[in-house]
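Support case: user asked for a sample of complex input and structure output to validate their parser. Sending the pair below.
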Amino acid sequence: MRQYETTFIVVPALPDGEIKKAVKNYKDILEKEGCEIVHVDEIGLRQLTYPIKRHNSGIYFTIEYKSENGEIIDKMELVFRRDERILRFLSVRLDKFGVKYNEDKRSGVIDKRKNDLAAERAKERAEQEASNKEKRATNRKSQKKKSAERAKAKEDAALAKAKVTDAEAGIAKTVEVSADVAKTVEVPADVAKTVEVPADVAKTVEVPADVAKTVEVPADVAKATAEPVVETVDTAVDVAEEVSLDGDILGDLTDSDKKG
Amino acid sequence: MAVQKRSGRTSREDIKFLSNPNIGNNRKKYCRFRKYGIKHIDYKDPDFLLQFINEQGKLLPRRITGNSLKFQRKIATAVKRARHLAMLPYVADLLK
């Protein structure tokens, strides 16, 4: 005895009794020919992925049966073709694995196994994602650190700028320091050149020497201010302009020192 | 010091994002049917078969899925049967 499986699609726009009758009709045909019906599975209404005879959905049925040989299939398929209620049909011989698969499916083993597999795959994916996340996290950390550095530098720069608006000396000192830093640090040549520009600007700004000495710029601020100067020369120039505009200074110097 | 550190790191990071970040960890492909002992492929399970076709409903090559030849053939017949039963499209766009 070989086991076969026939799946067919019934037109959905039929009264309920008609559909049942159609299925019963095919069952009867099989039984009449001496087949042993193993199982009749109603998959139910499904959306068709493409229209068949202008129908967009169909009711799927699967009949599993055992037969001595496949002669019955020809006869049944002839009936299928003549039947207008049937949209599609497919008959397949099941091998031993197929038989086992269907049995397992009926008893619910397959679904469980499928879920297990899905869980396993999900776990694998999660693991991979976790490792990726870790990498990303480290990246982000470094980025965060960098952005924090940048933020701090900006803040310090703003502070220094405020100081400069108060005191001409501020800019002279900070810019000079940045130039020094640029020289002491091993910087690519083009960057060093850009640094030199604000230094010149600083020179053009006329600063009283004693004022410059009195302003003590903290080392870290100096370092921080060096960064934006390197990045954008424009800011330094702006600052320098502001400095040249603003003259009154010395009164607030002590305050700004405290800030620094 | 800060100047050098930053300028150096920026350029390296730029290069890093130009390339695929997953390019290093190349995972070995395997045949899932062999690994998990799946013997039979059901043509009535389009959700499962969807893993082996691309967005246009075409079969993916073994090169990509990692299936062994035996199961790739079974997948192919199952997909073709599913297409016949309108469970999978013959032609599609944006299937996934």
